[in-house]
Design goal:
By secondary structure, this protein is α/β, with parallel strands linked by helices. It is built from 15 helices and 8 strands. Bound molecules: iron/sulfur cluster (2 copies).
């Protein structure tokens, strides 16, 4: 579970064209101030390490950053921040080192590959990308633990641009970047889709190219590792996107807003409103997806349902969490590939197992009771039941 602290909510120094937080900005829900005492009081109740998040958290003045990081260091011996990197100064880097801040930089590549992270004009966009790149270099040289989030789209991962993106990541590996997380583009408006969306076949090709790179670099790229574990029923450490996330409580993400109020992962805020966190989860999305035909936005009869579950609700078709993900064709294709690979190796993918119908029934029953067990737990329960039967058999 991640605790995200967002003193200035979605306030940002740039305006990425595809940002999933744009509905909130369009609705004018951008706070201009925060209450540090209220934030720290909420963190006292959370008792978890936290990450500074935004918008752009480096819009927070340095004395307040330092107060938050001193609190994080004293209680948890570590700190984290997710930033676009363009505002990082030498003073920030000194603080990252002093307060053991692990830095995640959201950047989609060098030069024109990062143009979708728009700063108002082409000139300003390229200048801020150059500042982010320079900050990454300086942090690597200074020994700040740094990783990347790269969103994949037409401007950085089309067939023509992909080789440069891969080469850039390879170069950063040599400079000491710890890891990169790859995100498929979340499309929240037709204009963004038209300009930046990759086809399912292109997404598959890009992820396969990074899987090949994963085998040769030191940094963690983690392409497909979650999916491979899902296919073995080992989902106890799987990321939230595969684990039936309830959009009104988002178990994997708890956000502390500038007022100290708790809220959810922002990916589901399609109406521009940061809803207050619900006090108990519901799994109606997963019950509905299981029974709804695919031509109506559901997942009915998909053999990958247990390992995919319609994916992250923030990526749902038409921005409606009741639907399955817009990336369905990509995941279907990749899970199909993993299935064939496992069969070739003589292994048994969960998706082709005779246990699947019983496991599906058990998950549906649990969701209907407001519980969300792991597949791993359920499989162990099934094994115990079988062992009990065998012991009792004459
Ligand atoms: S909305 Fe998506 S990214 Fe956010 S916690 Fe849920 S599954 Fe994870
Ligand atoms: S692959 Fe598509 S149909 Fe199957 S569970 Fe995932 S989103 Fe649903």
């Amino acid at each position: 579970m991640t605790v995200e602290v967002r003193p200035l909510g979605v306030a940002c120094n740039i305006a990425c064209q595809y940002c999933y937080q744009n509905p909130q900005r369009d609705a004018g829900n951008v706070p201009g101030r925060y209450d540090l005492d209220a934030i720290l009081a909420s963190l006292d109740s959370e008792r978890q390490p936290f990450a500074l998040f935004g918008g752009e958290p480096l819009l927070v003045p340095i004395p307040d950053l330092e107060r938050l990081w001193a609190y994080g260091l004293e209680r948890f011996e570590t700190n984290r921040i997710q930033t676009n990197g363009a505002l990082i100064t030498d003073e920030h880097i000194a603080l990252f080192l002093a307060y053991k801040v692990r830095v995640g930089v959201s950047i989609d590549g060098p030069d024109e590959l990062n143009d979708a992270r728009w700063a108002g004009s082409l000139e300003r966009t390229r200048a801020q990308t150059a500042r982010s790149e320079a900050a990454i270099d300086k942090m690597c040289a200074a020994g700040v633990p740094t990783s990347l989030i790269i969103t994949l789209h037409r401007a950085n991962a089309s067939a023509e641009r992909l080789p440069r993106l891969v080469e850039w990541v390879r170069g950063l590996d040599a400079r000491g970047i710890l890891g990169a997380r790859l995100h498929l583009l979340e499309v929240d408006s037709p204009e963004v889709g038209e300009k930046y969306r990759l086809t399912a076949a292109e997404n598959v090709a890009v992820l396969e190219a990074f899987e090949a790179l994963d085998g040769e670099v030191r940094m963690g790229l983690d392409v497909f590792s979650d999916m491979k574990r899902m296919m073995e029923g080992r989902d106890d450490k799987a990321s939230c996107v595969w684990r039936a996330c309830d959009p009104y409580t988002t178990a994997a993400v708890r956000s502390v807003e500038g007022s100290g109020q708790m809220s959810n992962c922002g990916r589901t805020n399609k109406d521009g409103v940061d809803f207050v966190k619900g006090d108990r989860p519901g799994y109606e999305r997963y019950l509905a997806l299981y029974h709804t035909p695919q031509q109506h936005g559901g997942c009915k009869d998909c053999r990958f349902f247990l390992v995919c579950k319609g994916y992250c609700p923030g990526t749902s078709l038409d921005g409606d969490w009741r639907n399955r993900t817009e990336h369905c064709d990509t995941w279907k294709s990749l899970y199909g590939t993993l299935e064939r690979r496992m069969q070739k190796e003589g292994r048994h993918p969960l998706t082709l197992s005779g246990l699947r119908p019983d496991l599906e029934r058990r998950m549906l029953e649990a969701w209907a009771r407001g519980r969300n067990p792991t597949l791993y737990e359920q499989l162990h329960r099934m094994k115990r039941e079988l062992d009990g039967l065998l012991e009792e058999a004459p």
